[in-house]
Amino acid sequence: MQITRSSTDTTRGPTSWFTGEVYLDAVAAAPPPSRVSANLVHFMPGARTHWHRHPLSQTVFVTEGVGLCQRRGGPVEAIRPGDRVLFEADEEHWHGAAPNRLMVHLAINEGDDEHDVVEWLEPVTDDEYGSARDL
């Protein structure tokens, strides 16, 4: 058995990436040649990412609460514990907590030498986020 003790503090998600209160815990940042990273992302009620895209896709696995996600031009979808969402390479999307529930997910990303792991875009508007009222 091998236990690796966490040596990183929980950090507040930057306002250039998120709307609302979000916290990040680094889970995995494997040394080269691995190109996989993982973060546990804690969204308080109503918090969400900005629109963004990943050149090599992103997988999120919901561990707690109720969340929302949307790809550009698609419907807002509810996500719950045990749900796994694959955002395809370069698919513009956002994800976050429902208005009245927190949501925690594990975000798994892959990088390479030619691209940043993520390209951040504009914030999700309240109207875009509010289109999920009936979920």
TrEMBL record:
Residues 40-98 form the Cupin type-2 domain. It holds the Pfam family Cupin_2. SUPFAM superfamilies: RmlC-like cupins (SSF51182). CDD domains: cupin_HNL-like (cd02233). Gene3D superfamilies: Jelly Rolls. It comes from the Bacteria. This is Cupin domain protein. It comes from Auraticoccus monumenti. The lineage of its organism: Bacteria, Bacillati, Actinomycetota, Actinomycetes, Propionibacteriales.
